[in-house]
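Morning. Coffee machine broken again, so started the prediction first thing and wrote up yesterday's gels while waiting. Chain of 84 residues, entered below exactly as on the submission form.
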Amino acid sequence: MYSKGSPIHLKIESDDSYLELFNQKIEFGPMVQILNGTLGIPFSEITDWLQGAEDDDNFEILLVGVEVHEEFVDRPKKKEKGDN
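Came back before lunch.
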């Protein structure tokens, strides 16, 4: 069973993403975001909340030591040296 300190992996997919820089909106299109870290709260807090949560309720989860990877699906991939 999961507990505080357990590794956690989240995958978030979005149809639209953008960056706002100097009041300019730069569209990036679809994005996949991968988060890897460890759970910073007891897992029982999450399951207890889920049992009484309504559809529009929110719950904050603390992640520790998080690594984030973002992939912009429609952007061309950077060629590595040696690729043709």
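The mean pLDDT is 87. Going to sketch it on the whiteboard this afternoon.
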